[in-house]
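User: I'm new to structure prediction. If I give you an amino acid sequence, what do you actually give back? Let's try with this one:
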Amino acid sequence: MKILCEVQVVNRTTQANRTPRPVKSTLAIGYKQSASDSNGTTKKELEMLLFSGQAKTGTRYKVRDNVQAVHTKFILDGKATIGFHQPADNLLIKCDPIQLKGFLQTLKLGMEGKDAINLRLNIAAATAIPQKSQPQQRMVISKRSEYPIKGFPRTLKSLTINNSQLVKLSFEICTLRNLTTLDVGGNKLTKIPPELGRLSLTTLHLSGNSLGELNDWCWMRGTKLSQSLRELDLSSNGLTYFPPALVKFERLVTLKLNHNQLTRLPFAIRRLQGLRSLHVCSNKLESLPAAIEDLHIDQLDVWGNCFGAFNVEAAQLQAQRLSASNIPQPLWLQAARAVANYKLPLSADSLPAILIELISESPKCLCGKLCFALRKEDVLQRVVQPKFTNIKNLTYSREHQIYADVVICGPNCSASQQLKALFALMFPVH
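Assistant: Good question. You get back a string of structure tokens that encode the predicted 3D arrangement of the chain. For your 430 residues, that looks like this:
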């Protein structure tokens, strides 16, 4: 059996790296046939052979009674270490996880003296795998006839399938563990399989599909995807609302939602503290949430939306409500505010998961306190003008003034009193 991998050789006696860094190599394992003795019998010696740029003829390692240790703690990441007694070398191997598992299983069978198909390689005649046979890491498909008949290479890191009339994302794609970039824009997808959430993608392009038809966002609940994704493009999908699970992608850097039918962005968007580029041009946004001020965005594109004028009716109504008596706050809200005020760590070991979610996603009053909009009328639409203090570049239609939605925590907070005074000036009582 032979595999392509990257190997770094470290000598345990001298603690010296025989290779200063991992180098592209071929690892082979098989039997070496010895010459026949007087009785005509031959002996088989199990050996491992390492080919690299520094050892083009191969470095031989006997296997039987010569393997000091095999470390497989990070086998799922495609990493393993094989140590030998003589010479005292450690082979630090990095390879496709599936190929590496197969190689180590073959090694185990050989050490146990069992026969296996993968051990029938004549190690004496083994050669390095040619450079042209390096595993494929990138694939681009622009029409259905280019779809691989024998399946996708397990070593793919980047896969692009554009404008191919694709109506379903195959389960096989969701099993490509090495995949980091997936672009399936310009197809006819109406849903994404939930198994995609198990991949550690960094870039995902889904523009030009029809995901807004079914609004099935189960795939966004995948822990691996939500922790790894840096760039997401959901443009031109007919979305009528912001996918709720999207606010949990806290490592997201670039988010594109252009050419949809969004009318609102959630207050919980403040959870995306890593976001640096937000594109929501050509939607139906009437306003922005005040939470947009909590983000540190380099590029905010809201061009071509339907931003409404100052909401006079909401301001008049709120001016009356601010004069009303205090309403008792729910216990969970008081607990959440206490955690926020004392800056307690949001640890699952000490706080209920639901409380952590509420603290992370609930809107904040202009005074900084956590709030909760129990009713639609609790959200004051288009009553303040955002300052965009933390926005470096803002792209918008200058014929429309942008106003923000807010939630007020109570009649006695500082922001409430300021708004009350402002509304009194705007709407004097005669």
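You can read the tokens as a compact description of the fold. Here is one thing that stands out. The helical segments are 97-111, 223-228, 312-321, 331-341, 353-361, 414-426.
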